[in-house]
Write a structure and sequence with these properties.
This protein is α/β, with parallel strands linked by helices. Helix content is 32%, strand content 19%.
Amino acid sequence: MLANPRRRIERVVATRNAAARLPEGVDAQIHDPDAIDRMLPPGAVHQGLALRAWPLEPLDLDAACAPADARPVVVLDAITDPHNVGAIFRSAAAFGARAMILQDRKAPPLTGTLAKSAAGAIELVPEVRVVNVARTLERLDGLGYLTVGLTGETETTLAEALADPRPVALALGAEGKGLRPGVLDACARAARIPIEAAMDSLNVSNAAAIALYAAAQRR
């Protein structure tokens, strides 16, 4: 967070030992561990360092994704669980995703549980908030992306869909319901991750990690 030039830091508090490990130029207020405990919500783990920061401003779709290049884009449709969204951010950062696109009314803020699950990835992968996911996929198609919706209701495998050499935008839906019909219809391709018949589906964050790995192998 401290290394992100887009992040506005309001206040940094640290123990004397933790402050000694901070980058040069970071001004921290020195407190003992108990005092820092009292500043934070119950159960928070600070390891001698805590800060208050302003939320990052989401980027505009074109600013984050145009022109299309080899990096994949991730589109989340109505995924509300902050643990899942945070884990997907982490995979997106690990496999070089260009941006994470979320529906503004149906996605959690990038704070708290989500930020902790992301393990720093929200500082690395730009966030885009959109009103209409289906129209956003159509816009990505116009920018030159191959839009692929992950679903179990197709015979086309992810490997077959990714044989198309265009940059890819991967769309994933909420667990159980999956992609909404209008969103899936807006994708140029529907694709499935082949799994054993004994299991109905994967956790959405696991599916995202597999899909991002597959997309990264093409680069």
